[in-house]
Each structure stands twice: as structure tokens, then as C-alpha cells.
Amino acid sequence: MEEGFTKHPDQPWRVLEFYSGIGGMRYSLTKAGVNAEIVEAFDINDKANDVYEYNFGHRPYQGNIQSLTAADLDSYGAHAWLLSPPCQPYTRQGLQKQSNDPRAFSFLNILELIQDTSQPPTMLFVENVVGFETSDTHSKMLEILVNAGFVTQEFILTPLQFGVPYSRPRYFCLAKRKPLSFQRPLFDNQLLQSPSPLFGHADEVMLCQLDETQESLDKLLQSCEPIERFLEFKNPSQQPESSFMDTTSASMDVFGALEIDGEGGAHDISSLEQYSVPLNLIERWGSAMDIVYPDSHRCCCFTKSYYRYVKGTGSLLATVLPKKRGKTSSLKEQGLRYFTPREVANLHSFPEGFHFPQHISLRQRYALLGNSLSIAVVAPLLQYLFAELS
Length: 390
Fold this sequence. Notes:
Elements lengths: L12 E6 L5 H8 L4 E7 L3 H11 L13 H6 L4 E4 L18 H12 L9 E7 L6 H12 L2 E8 L8 E2 L2 E8 L13 E2 L21 H9 L28 E2 L5 E2 L19 H7 L5 E2 L6 E2 L15 E3 L17 E3 L2 H7 L14 H9 L4 H12 L4
Helix pairs in contact: 1-10, 4-5
């Protein structure tokens, strides 16, 4: 390799983790079994860094990433950069300013520094929301990577394709700098929507095409575990079936927001009662709620506003099974509750050893999880990226 940091076979890959959040990328790297060392992590969010430090014993660099220079990046001697930049510039609900959104500046700044580094990284991994792939930021990213000698393989994948009953499709870009190459070069410079290349099915080109038929979806869902496997409280006797939250203590705005004791930090996180959906929210927003059951094989994506808002932020769990499912039955009698932060973490495939520090409020836990990633999806992608040709 003419440029870049040399790596001996027995040495770990040196990795920089940008926008490290609560450590989803680092957990994915561990789950992938990659011999790697995180030489530095970067995140501007103080609470996210509290969680990261609590679990890994290392506090990420908390300065503005935009202040980093090429010399700074060279000083780390990293082989690979892992990046999960802010998704707000590309979400359907956002203003879609793309590269003109200030939240996109740091990501583009990091990419542009590649050409100025004396020893650029040999691999990159980028995660973002679906919609990023049609943005001008994406076009600029590919232009920079091509000019820097990288070859890419791109994916849009969801945890449902890995047996997890969680609908959270995300965009991923894997990049290797020549002369490094992917194990399946057949898919170079393509956007794939199947994980089959990750598992050695290089000849199954048709599986990499988008298939949105109902039959295909049904087959996919049948391969997923039931939601009950991911629940913290599985025994019906543990569910708050009739213990509805007193609506006199919950206020609601026009967006269906749940405001409880300010930040929600005054409650005992382990208390089940706080997860019950107030009756007044059910009455007003029931028709907009996504209701799932313990034996369901799919739930909606949890956003950072889950628990704060009930509309479009994630699924609610029915703890009392009605004779006839759906909204034709009275939702008030189904014991609706929010998924707990531990359950959301489970659906993100975080390990049992992951924990929040006590001072992180309930609202903050949901927000941090909503900004995180699916380890079940990212781990095999990283395993594929770091695989070396024999």
C-alpha cells in the first residue's frame, strides 16, 4: 500500500468513531469480531458522552468536529473512519436543506480533509437515513471518495432482514481505498437493498433488487422473532394492564405531547406505571397510534421524540389481547404502554451489558436511543468491510 498507515496482520485496525452517540458503532465493531481499536471517538452531545463513558470507560472528544484539521486526523494514525452524521438534513419530516443545513457542515468538512491528510484512511463507513442517497451531500461524498481513490458499495437495509422485528431502514456506504478491494467486487459502485452479499451470496444478483411485494414482505416478517423475545417485562402479571396513568398529572398539547414532571427525571425508571399511555391521549390520538402485540413480528421505528409524542414516533404495546385485534376494538381496554428504554435498546440489538447512568432521565434515554443505530445490521456490514482477501 503506497499511502496510508501500514498495518501488520497481527495488529488491530486503528479506528476513528465520528458522531459516536451512545456507542452503537463501537458495539457493532465488537459484535462483528473485528480486531480493532477505537483510538478516538467524537461527539458534541454531553449526555451521549456520559453514556458512552459509563459503558466504555472512555469519554469521547467533545469539541466541534469542524475544528479538526488534517494534521489532527493524521496524528491518530487511523486505518478506518466510522461516521454516523446527523440525519435531520435528509429526513422527510425536516426542511431537507441537505448540504446547506449547518448540521451537514461537519460531515462534509471531514470528507474534504481526506485529500489534505498525508496518510488518508484506507476504509470508511457511513450510516444515515433513507433519503440521504438522493441528496447533494451524497453526491459530494461520492465525488470526494472517487477522487481519493476509493471504491464503494452502498446498501439500504433494515433489521427485519436480520430477523429483528424492527422496521428501521437505513442507508449505508462502505468504502475501501485502492488497492484494497471488497470480497464481492461484483457489487462495486452499486446501491443494494439485500444483505445477501454480506453472507457470500455473490451470484444472487436479483436478491439485491428492491422487492416490495406483499408476498415478499410477509415472508420477511415470518423470518423475524416475535416482539415478546425483546420485552423487558414478559409475564402478563408484570404488565400494567389496568394501571393507567392518572390523566390529571399529564398535560397534552396539539401534537399529542406527553409532559410529565418536566424532563421526566423525577420518576423511578423501573416503575412500570409511567409507561402506561394516558387515557386522554388514547381518546385523542388513538386513530394515529401504531399498536403492536407481544406475538407481532414487526414494530415501527422509534424516533428521538418517543414517549414525548405519541403520533409517528414509534409503536405502542398492547398488554391485554382483545378478542379482535386492531382499532375496531376499544384501545382503552388493551392496556397500551410505551416500550421501555431497555426494550428499545433490545430492538436496536444493544447487548445486555449496555446501561444508562442513573442521572440520564427517561426522556433523554429515549432521545439518545432514537438517534442510535441497529447493531444487528451494522455488525455484519462492518465484518464485510474489514474482511481481508486471502
